[in-house]
Amino acid sequence: MGGKDVRQSESQWYLGYDEHSWRAISSYEEIREASYYVLITNAEGLVTNGRLVNAVLERRKMSIGREKARAERTRLFPRGK
To answer: How many CB atoms lie within 10 A of CB 50?
Structure first.
């Protein structure tokens, strides 16, 4: 896992925080995400809870040029074949 460790508060850390590049989620929309582990610590600094998070940072409509490029990639490199 890449990314960096970020302290959010005295008792909360984001481990392996990594922002990803834009990816298409449909033929007309794309998103940019971040993934990280959230760790909650107690007063002694021991981890008491944690979870993996995938958060959407931004969402946007694709331009016509990107839609055409994606359609061409799908035509040339179909998934599952």
So the answer is: 13
Domains of the chain by residue range: 4-76
Dist. CA 57–CA 39, nearest whole Å: 20
Q: Is 15 helix (H, G, I), strand (E, B) or coil?
A: strand
Distance of alpha carbon 66 from alpha carbon 39, whole angstroms: 38
Q: What is the pTM of this model?
A: 0.63
Tokens 């298409």 belong to residue: 24
The one-digit pLDDT tens for each residue of the chain (81 residues) are: 467 877 778 888 888 999 999 999 988 899 999 999 999 999 898 999 999 999 999 999 987 666 667 776 777 777 655
Q: Return the number of other C-beta atoms located less than 10 Å from residue 61's C-beta.
A: 10
Token couple for 30: 């794309």
